[in-house]
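Workshop exercise sheet. Pairs work together: one partner reads the sequence aloud, the other fills in the structure field after running the prediction. Swap roles for the next sheet.
Pair: D.N. / O.F.
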Amino acid sequence: MNPTRQTAALPLLLLNGVGTLLLGAGLIGLLAPHLAPPLAAARIAWSLIGVGLILDLASMAGFLRIALKQRQGGREPG
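Structure field:
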């Protein structure tokens, strides 16, 4: 992977990482409530799961866009 591709993919990797952390935190709060803070309600866990999924899907769409551009022989955005 050349530096240009790494630079274009870096924001997507960060977005994916944050989304995965939020998704994991929501799942822990939902499936193991004894590990979560005592005031955290189930709706907060569902909110974390929803935001994590949205961020993960957005990063996947970005990776797909870069992959399709490379396959067509064009340059990736960024």
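Discussion prompt: The mean pLDDT is 83. What would you look at next?
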